Every structure is written in structure tokens, then in C-alpha cells.
Amino acid sequence: MDKSAILRSMTKDVDYEQIGSPIFRVFTDRDLHRIEPLRRLSDEQLFEMQVVASVLPFRVNEYVINELIDWRRVPQDPIFQMTFPHKAMLQDEMYDRMASLHRKGADRQEIKSLAGALRTKLNPHPAGQLALNVPINADGNRLQGIQHKYRETVLFFPSQGQTCHSYCSFCFRWAQFIGDKELRMASAEASVLHKYLKGHEEVTDLLVTGGDPMVMKTKYLARYLEPLLKPEFEHIQTIRIGTKALSFWPQRFVTDEDSQELMALMRRLVSGGKHVAIMAHYNHWKELETDIARIAIKRVRETGAQIRSQGPLLRNINDDPDVWAKMWNTQVQLGIVPYYMFIERDTGARNYFDVPLYQAWQICRDAKKRVSGLGRTARGPGMSSDPGKIEIQGVSRIRGEKVFVLHFIQGRDPDWVHRPFFAKFDEKATWLHQLEPAFGQDRFFFESGFQSMIESRRAITDE
User: Fold this and answer.
1) Element (H, E) at 350
2) Is the sign of the CA dihedral 295, 162, 327, 25 positive or negative?
3) Are the C-beta atoms of residues 170 and 348 closer than 8 Å to each other?
4) For residue 310, what are the β-bridge partners?
5) Which tens digits make up the pLDDT trace of 366-383?
6) What Cα–Cα distance (Å) separates residue 407 from each residue in 59, 191, 389, 430, 444?
7) Is the full-model pTM beyond 0.85?
8) What is the DSSP string of 3-64?
């Protein structure tokens, strides 16, 4: 049976074993010279890529190279921008220092040493991921691989899932991929997760994240998730799995050797009473266009799991309302629920990708004008900041002052949620710390409470 015919059939009767499992081939910074389409670029462009990839992690697979990138549009192609390094991703001073080492033929250890120094300036763990989110047990030890920022939701980082099929050049979790154990969040202990969840009955949602949990074999994923079907975990209502595999390796759900087992696991969780939500990371409608991507979406939905889409607004990739409108409309057509439009976090190469808050709000508003109510389920644009997820609701003029209208979608203190507050309008601001309270106020309403949380945390960790 012809492979393309199978992929286009979109029926429940497809024999996926007949498609065959394509080999997963990946390229890192050491393999740039082996990526055939890059040979059409100049030597200087390739050198720039090598320099940036020495600092920011780079990994791409053949599916992305062959199926998602339009090489006729490189370097402007959005998926190329999303996955390959570019000179402007590093500040000039950083780039020049690393380029100097490469030009003089420095050894790998010298390059690694400078890369480590430069990375410390890139805010490797924004929004209190390590400082505030990791729980501390009764013995004063951090519970590695767990984050608990919001009351109802726990994040878990399984060690087997702390890489991705391809890396996004804008990833806010880039520090997971650089081999620094001090910065990496991960745990291989399912018992630690299960014990923590048993002791916190206020938690209703578990988010398995990474990296990408879908790089794991199904048998490992099952060890973490299947025990949640036991009566003692009745309070865990929703199991979320954060992934970009539907974009970067949809074969994971269709042709990988244990894809059938993965679908069966999802069905067991759903039939066991859990709401299974695949939190799919999408940045451009092109990621939804291939036959295999659509088959993968269909297979996931047939298990009873729901797919919700989220992703950041990014200069050079999707800072256009037409892109978001087309993406959201396509997602609704395919049965995916648009969930979040994020502001690019203040980490890594954010200077290359960030969009001013005012412009982000305009793009989001203009995109939502072009979709039906089902496409307007996406919240945002929102900042996943230290105190919580803050949404920009609009720009208004109150008492003669032009202001941003803001509110918390989620907060470290649940009492902050959906309380509107106002910031002075700033056309250039790209993140919360650049905003000032409106109407002559000294502080935003949540700042005193947040500062108390920081001090309490310090008191615990200093003991």
C-alpha cells in the first residue's frame, strides 16, 4: 500500500504498521556541515550559526528540515527562524567574544568555558523556576523535578523527557539542554511525585513537562501516570502533557514502534476518569499542514484526550495577526482548542524575539477579530512572570491617563486572580518589570504579598 495514500486516507481503518516507522535522525551544533540544505548558505552565515550554537542549544531533526522549512525562503522562513541559530540572537559583545574563539581555533573546552560564562547573563531560569517554585520537604531538601507555583497545578519533569525532538531557538527552558546539572530540573523517581501528590489534595492538575515528555518511551511515561488511576489519587482530575511532538515529530503518535502503546495508555487514563490534555506547542500554521501531522492529531483525539494549543508571540516568526488567525482557525477545524498566546519570556535570545506589550495586544486583538467564538478561547497575550500569569486586557484612558489594563489569569496567591489593575502606558515595554503603576501609586496591589513570599522562602532555605 502506498505510504502517501495511507496518510491521506484519514480513516479509522488505517493499518499504521504498513506505513513503516521512519528513522529519527537528529543534528546538533557538531553536525551543521552535514545538513545538506545549509550548503546553499554563505560561509559567513554558517560561521555565524556555529558561533551562536556554541552558546544557545541547537538540535533539529530531518522531519523539520525536509517537511516544515521552505528552503526557498531561508533565512526568512518562520520554521527556519524557529529552529536554526542566527547571529542577532546574541548581543554584539557576546557574539564577538565567542566568534573570536572560533576564529583562532580554540579547543572545545575553552569554547565551553566561555559559553558557560555567557549563559549566566541570559537569565537561565526566569519567573522563579528554581528559586521559588521547587517545593522543600520537611527535612529542608528541595524536591528535584517538581514545581508547585499555583495551588491547583503541579509540574513534573521526568528525567527521561528532558530533551526535545528539535529545539526552539526561543525556548524559555533552554537551560535544560546545556548539560549543567545545577540548572537542570529533572527526576527519575516516580515515587517522589506520587508521594507529593498524595500529600497535596488541593492539587487537581498534573502537568508533565520538559523538555518534551513525548521523547520518552511509553513504558516510562506509564510508570509516572498509570498509578494516578488508584483511588488515593482521585483528587488528580487532569493530566496534562506538554509537548511539541505534534509539530516536530508527529510520527511519535503514528509510526514510532510504541505509538500504539502510547495511544492505549491515553485511552486507559481517559477511561479511568482522568481528563487527559495534550498541551501542544504551536507557533505557526505551517506546523499543521503536513499529512502526518493531521493524522497524529486525529489519533490523539480518538483516544478521548483533548488537544489545547499554546505558544509565544515572536518577532521574526509570527508577529502578524494573519498568522495567528489562520493558525487558530485551522486548529479549530482540526478539533484543537486554542488556549494561550504568551509574551516571549525574559530569557535566552529574547531580544531577538520579543514584541512590545502594546504591539502584542494589538496583534492578538486583530487576530481575534478574524476568528469565530471557538477560536477566541485563546487567552492572552499573557506574561508568565514571577508573581503569576498576567494578561494584557487592553489599553484605555482613565482619569486622563493612558494605561494598560491588566489582570492575573493565575497567581501565586489565588486571591490575585481576575483582579484588574493598571499600569502606565509604555509603548516600548516588553515585560512586567518595565511597567510602573498608574495613577501615582507606589506599588501594584500584589507586590507586598509577593515580597513576603520571597522573604519567607529565603527564611526556609537559609535555615
Assistant:
1) helix 350-353
2) negative
3) yes
4) 281, 340
5) 999 999 999 999 999 999
6) 36, 37, 8, 16, 11
7) yes
8) HHHHHHH--TT--GGGT------EEEGGGGGG-GGGGGS-HHHHHHHHHHHTTS--EEEHHI
